[in-house]
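Researcher: I'm preparing a figure for a lab meeting and need a structural model of a single chain. I don't have an experimental structure, so a prediction will have to do for now. The sequence is pasted below. Please return the structure as tokens so I can convert it later.
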Amino acid sequence: MARDGGKSGRDGGLSAAGGDFFHLVIDYAKQETLGPLKSLGRFLVFGLIGSIAITAGAVLLLLAGLRALQTETGSSFTGHLSWLPYLIVAAVAIAVMGLAAWRITKGPGAKKHRAGEPRAKSDDKGS
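Model: Understood. Here is the structure written out token by token.
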């Protein structure tokens, strides 16, 4: 809508209408670029904060598991078996990372991404 109540095209001539058109295009470009960019920035910031919080929580849980294995198992992991709690915690950490990678690649997001692709022939049950 024109900035002067819709009169610029009639009273100001062609140059005023051109100026209004220019401002309208600039306002539209700002609306269509800055709004989505702000939303994307918010999405990235909250995603980064969330991933840092989840990583910190996972590290603390792994450390708690290590300390529990070292202190609460009595004499099971002492002497020449003192390395075993570290191996157990490392295996759990690798399993959690593998589970996360599997869910990222095969989860709901991957299904949405593959929705536009044609189905493979191996999926057909009649063949």
